[in-house]
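Task: fold both queries, return tokens.
Query 1:
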Amino acid sequence: MAKFILHVESRPANEKVVDEFNRWYDEVHLPEVVALDGIVAATRFVPKEQEGPYITQYEIEGDPEQAVKNITAAAAAGRLNMTDTLATKPVPRLQILKVATEYRP
């Protein structure tokens, strides 16, 4: 069975809210998203020098399009606690990636 990742690039709204953004992402958003059907784990990356996007990669089990629909539906229904510390311009970038190769010596 193919493995998929949902790759998300986002940013804090501004430099004053970085700590609050990180706290929300780690303590609220990740647990809420991973609790949804189709999402089994998440790994989050922050830029070393505060430049560039913050990246989260969600491991998907099953149909990746359905997993993204589950996230969208949960957000629309208010089941995801969002924050104004998340920049909306530019809109966070989402991309479904198929795992081509895993190499672990």
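Query 1 returned. Query 2:
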Amino acid sequence: MPGYKIGDAMKSMRILVDTREKKNQHITKALESKKCPFKPHKLDYGDYTCEYDTEAEKGIIFADRVAVERKASLDELAGNLTKGRDRFDREFQRAKEAGAKVYLMIESGSYDDIKNHRYRSMLPPNSFLNTLFSWQQKYNITISFVSKQFAGDYIYATLFMALKNYLLYGGD
């Protein structure tokens, strides 16, 4: 595009936070410290994505390219894999159909915690992990265990680099 400046598009990036996302003050505080604007927005999948501006268009929503799904704990995730499994599965299916890359960010837990059953659910560790590995392949998701302290940094860096690479190298 003539006159199109990637740097300007990157500076315009705003994080969109799903309107159903709760108890995320540690994330919004991290975004504020990076001087990254954010705002509530209803998302069809994921909890975080971003939007940006170009010379030709304002508020281009990036959800069809990338989203971050946040789980605050292994207990929350285990609930999504048991009681809420159908809804959770449909959410990943919608993202896949849209062509979006989803990053599943799990706070306050680790692979070791799953293996050692350090969560309240009765979901057996092997079933827990097999579902995660299966969905990782089925939906092309990336699973990351991130401490609560760095959750905001992870969301920002993931969306920032996804947008930057898209603008530099294009999609598909």
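Both queries returned. Flag for query 2: The radius of gyration is 17 Å.
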